[in-house]
């Protein structure tokens, strides 16, 4: 039998920063305190975007694909780290950085083409290609726009922790 307290002591980093939450995760602290790193959420993920992150804890990598909100990661977790499916999966939103091709006056609408909730629209501007506009109220944080972006200009993060 594995003593989880010893295991946590040996694997936890005091400055551990997880890039992304897992959908429906009760809290990032719960992940670092109670996750046994069994990998069942990684295996269960429909789009295989859950990967081992810092210190071996699971995290979402939107460069691989999008979250379909299938809830399989939560169902597979033996530790009960997740909220009920009826609750909101997370508070993360997409932001478009300055290295966006459209902001460099190069025609590109890849992110908008992949945005199912249509949170990304394009506004025509005189003397420029259409510029992307993000409607944060419509963004569900699925990350479909991230892997579609050829210049890696889109980041999905918790808007309250922006800048961390």
TrEMBL record:
CDD domains for the chain: NapF_like
Keywords assigned by UniProt, alphabetized: 4Fe-4S, Cytoplasm, Iron, Iron-sulfur, Metal-binding, Repeat
Names of required cofactors: [4Fe-4S] cluster
Main location per the UniProt record: cytoplasm
Compartment annotation: Cytoplasm
Binding locations of [4Fe-4S] cluster 1: 35, 38, 41, 45
Coiled coil (residue ranges): none
HAMAP family, per database record: NapF (MF_02201)
Binding site for [4Fe-4S] cluster 3: 139, 142, 145, 149
A matching Pfam family: Fer4_7
Family designation: Belongs to the NapF family.
InterPro entries documented for this protein: 4Fe4S_Fe-S-bd (IPR017896), 4Fe4S_Fe_S_CS (IPR017900), NapF (IPR004496), PSI_iron-sulfur_center (IPR050157)
Record-annotated 4Fe-4S ferredoxin-type domain positions: 26-55, 58-87, 130-159
Function according to Swiss-Prot or TrEMBL: Could be involved in the maturation of NapA, the catalytic subunit of the periplasmic nitrate reductase, before its export into the periplasm.
Residues holding [4Fe-4S] cluster 2: 67, 70, 73, 77
PROSITE patterns in alphabetical order: 4FE4S_FER_1, 4FE4S_FER_2
Alphabetized NCBIfam families for the sequence: napF
Subunit structure comment from the entry: Interacts with the cytoplasmic NapA precursor.
Name by which UniProt lists this protein: Ferredoxin-type protein NapF
